[in-house]
Amino acid sequence: MRAVLLFCMLTLGSSHYYQHVDVMDIMRSHDVMMADSGDDDDNYDDRYDSCPMSCHCSPRVVQCSDQGLISVPTKIPSDILMIDLQNNDITQIKENDFKGLDKLYGLFLINNRISKIHPQAFKNMNRLRLLYLSYNFLTEIPANLPPNVIELRFHENKINKIQKDAFKGLKKLHVLELGANPLANTGIELGAFNGLATLYVGMSESRLTAVPKDLPSSITELNLEYNKIFKVEVEDFIRYKNLQRLSLSFNQIRFVENGTLAHTPNIREIHLDNNSLKKVPPGLSSLRYLQAIYLHANKISNVGMNDFCPLRFGEKKNLYNGISLFANPVKYWDIHPATFRCVGGRRGVQLGNFRK
């Protein structure tokens, strides 16, 4: 399951344009759906007769994408597991749109015109695991979200505020995608993420000027690319000790405060490329599991012999497989060869002449 979620994070996490989601591929990946159905397939032919107009029905899936629908169709078979409503013109979700669909596993409403969702629209949908609402016109997080959902995607809506307890009761959530919303730090209320134990949070392409400090402490991956963050301070990561992958690319970061990275002892991968750093962030040599650090396209003019590797042999548990320093003003011939003594193989370091 975690492998599937990771694949979805990488493919859907930070798209700049609408990408059609292949519901059948997702269905095949989530084997648990087959076990959840608990039904005999012998009578599916009878249910085809009640398939909503303009939709295609097959065992466990109703596909109604790209049909110009302005509302959720009626007469959806009650034992369906997946509903594909992508790329339509639906403007709102009403209270009874999904009434009786208590076996639903995945609901895909990507790329519609939804601006309003009734507070009781997801009532009794206790088996829903995947809820994709990206590319719509929502201004806030819908109320009473399904309690057992594991993936929530709100990429590219108009959300500028996350109220306290917005995700209350979602104890099984693994993936929360909020990227490409006009969300600033002031729009995140204290306690907005109360009760969450999610693994991935995506808030790229927003209006953040600092690392949010009230995210779930359980996160292992945080994506804050394409924001307006200009510094990273010690207090920014105190809560996120489980963090393994951090992406701060394409911000305006000028410095990383000394001691900041000490709070992420399990970090494996850090993206700080395309910023305004003038030196290698302090503390990298103390990160025993760090394998990849991306620092290209900054303003780094000097690299010290101990910037990446610890002084004592054997302290580092994982060797680097990627250090990128190209597109910086540092001259590669000025870097001492011992600087990369804890890198596994020649191709683990990417240097290059600085070009204006």
Task: Describe the fold and architecture.
Strand 1 and strand 2 form a beta hairpin. It contains 4 helices and 18 strands. It has a domain of 128 residues: Ribonuclease Inhibitor (Leucine-rich repeat, LRR (right-handed beta-alpha superhelix), Alpha-Beta Horseshoe). The strands form 3 sheets. The protein has a 14-stranded mixed beta sheet. Strands 4-6 form a two-stranded parallel sheet. Strands 12-14 form a two-stranded parallel sheet. The two termini are 46 Å apart. With 356 residues, it is mostly beta strands.
Q: What is the percent of helical residues?
A: under 10%
Helical run tally: 4
Shape: elongated
What's the end-to-end separation, in Å?
46 Å
Name of the level-1 CATH class of the domain at 229-356: Alpha Beta
- The CATH architecture of the domain at 229-356 would be Alpha-Beta Horseshoe
Residues in β-strands, percent: 5-15%
* DSSP summary, beta strand count: 18
Which whole number gives the mean pLDDT?
90
CATH topology of the domain at 229-356: Leucine-rich repeat, LRR (right-handed beta-alpha superhelix)
Instruction: Kindly report the spatial arrangement of strands forming the biggest sheet.
Output: 1-2-3-5-7-8-9-10-11-13-15-16-17-18
What is the CATH H-level superfamily of the domain at 229-356? Ribonuclease Inhibitor
Provide the structure class. Answer: mainly beta
